[in-house]
Amino acid sequence: MTDHDTSNSVEPSFETDENTYSESQYYDGEGQEYSIVKERTWGQRLKSSISDFGFGIFLLSLALFLLCANESRSDHREKVLKQGEKAAISITSDLRDWNNNRKLVHTSGLATTEDILVDPEFGIKAVGIHLKRRVQVYQWKESRRTHVQKLSDGTEKEVTTYTYRKVWSEGLYDSTFFKQKQYRNPKSVAFQSIIYNAKSMSLGGFEFPYDLSRMMSRYVDIEADSELLLGEQVYGHVSKDQTGYYIGNDPETPNIGDMKITFHIVEPAVVSIVAQQIENGFRPWNTKNGPLNLLQYGVKTKDEMFEKAHSENTFATWAGRFGGFAFMWAGFFLLLRPIAVLASVIPVIGGVIGGGVALISFSLAALGTLATIIIV
């Protein structure tokens, strides 16, 4: 399969009922750039802006939904954390006290296991909480950027450039959706990334549950020391590559579809938790506002753990608010866009009106976001 066409080419322009198009390609030595130039007359732009009115209403509706859902989630989380702060008691993890059964407890200790985790396909073995096989595939990635230039006669020139680069990525990019169909990635590969989890874990004198262990995500590299699969296999040639394996003919000159496979382990570590004690183990503490289950690395006091949990909730809340604001701004802009397009037939006035539409859209979105936050 040919990865790309190394020749520069420019295709002639052609017209449709809506736009005038021209296309060009440029090869830069590493990947391919492919551009589509669309020219819209003032009338075509006005028609397009009016047709976008419905999409603007959809974006406003989506923004309101996201903002309301975000405020509800944030409020419920805050209530859970405040309930937890009042109810949690600190205990020692080395000694089980049956009087604390079904109570919300805070404790610290070594989360550990004696389980030997095994990747059966590669024969990798290690003692740990989680064992991850990471599979990266060499493949094409499509990037897109768009530049719009307004001309003096009200015509708009839009240049969309698609860039194709070869990258190592853990997930497969579906090349069937690429603009240029000659850039093809494999639809499937012989191996996938996977995580193996310990089944028997402990924290001091307690059983340590999976719900808490999955919050432990500090992976460290381990060396692939098995030679079971080296050499020619049905899916390609397997060789050692630094701490892992390489599937392909030559690691120095990779081809599309080649794979790099590495292994990583979450080792036993000292952690602090907040959870409900259930006999000799733990589970999430359920309330009418949601569950509470906290884990942080190191020895942390109860106050430190809840302070960080509040901070994380605040960050998530503001991230959701900015996301809702962005959708609302785009929605208002689409609703007001026909005004800017109408004015653009006169360049000087069009520039002023266009800037005014953007500013008004921003202001309406800010007010709408603030009002939603207050009302909800």
From TrEMBL:
GO terms for cellular component: endomembrane system. Residues 1-25 are annotated as: Disordered. Keywords: Endoplasmic reticulum, Membrane, Transmembrane, Transmembrane helix. The keyword Amino-acid biosynthesis does not apply. The keyword Membrane applies. The lineage of its organism: Bacteria, Pseudomonadati, Pseudomonadota, Gammaproteobacteria, Vibrionales. This is Uncharacterized protein. It is found in: Endomembrane system; Endoplasmic reticulum membrane. It is a multi-pass membrane protein.
